[in-house]
Amino acid sequence: MAVTCAERITTRMNTETKELLERALVLSGYASLNSFITAAATMAAKKLIEQEMTLSLSRQEASNFLDALDKPRTTNPRFLAAAKRYKETISEDPSVR
């Protein structure tokens, strides 16, 4: 089944860039320059998004993170009191207090 595409992007480029893309097109096996550019841009976009969504940690950072998950710190009474005061200050609903 053929996929129909409704979206269009138009771009201008210098002769050198077009020749470079046409040369790569011949090596790639794609049928048209449009399909080659679409595939290359899609691949680059996915790679960029994946890089931005991936968090890299050193061994020590990963170890510290896992330790924090395994042994969470106990709640500080001063923190609890401050959280309660804050909640009372911002709450408009008296039942929350």
- Backbone structural class: mainly alpha
Look at the structure and give the mean pLDDT: 90
Query: Can you count the beta strands?
Result: 0
Rg estimate, integer Å: 27 Å
How large is the share of residues in beta strands? Answer: under 5%
Helix content: 55-70%
Low-pLDDT windows of residues: none
Instruction: Note the run of SSEs as H and E.
Output: HHHH
* Total individual domains: 2
Distance between the termini: 62 Å
Give the biggest beta sheet: none
The shape, in one word, is elongated
Number of helices: 4
Describe this structure in words.
The protein is mostly helical and 97 residues long. The chain has two domains: 13-54; 56-97, no CATH class. It contains four helices and no strands. The chain has helices at 15-28, 33-53, 59-70, 77-90.
Distinctive features:
single chain, 97 residues, 2 domains, 63% helix, elongated
Question: Helices, strands, pairings?
Answer:
Blueprint: H1 15-28, H2 33-53, H3 59-70, H4 77-90
Brief synopsis:
This protein is mainly alpha-helical and 97 residues long.
